[in-house]
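Review form for a predicted model. The reviewer records the input and the model, then writes brief findings.
Reviewer: anonymous (R2)
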Amino acid sequence: MTAPEKKSAQRGRSSELLDIPGQKPSSREAQKRLTRERLITAGEAEFRIRGYNETTAENIATSAGTSRATFYVYFKSKAEVVLELMQRSSPDVLRAYSDLDAITKPTLRNVKAWLRSTMALWDTRRSDFTIMEQALANDDAVTDMWISTLANSYQVMPRPFGRVTKAKDHE
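Model under review:
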């Protein structure tokens, strides 16, 4: 792959800034990471303030202290910012499902404990989930990722899914 092809393939992807084991990232790579992170943080803030539909790439870039052109170096659209937020919250959500699956002998006490823990997660991530819900209603890429996450939830909950069907049926 040529250098321009690599740059094009990496544009807008969360994996664009990969570490090479045993090597410290260059100051340029560190600056790219910082800029990308500022855009994600600014996007999250703008979505909270304006809502998904009213937030523009320009709003996000301005809030991050960059230009709209810089935004598009890192993301193809505001939906990609939401996809990043979804990827970041996914481990916590899947862990909650996994914790439920780990309850082998449900009692009122351990189910209530799981509910409290899960409600705390939803409360902590309330604004993230609100942003995701707004984006789900308006952007196919976000909807596709959500459907994919749900379709793969059986992987962290083998007990309940195994009772009613074979896991391979979900693949």
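Findings: The two ends are 32 Å apart (CA to CA).
Further findings: Residues 17 and 30 are 9 Å apart (CA to CA).
Recommendation: see findings above.
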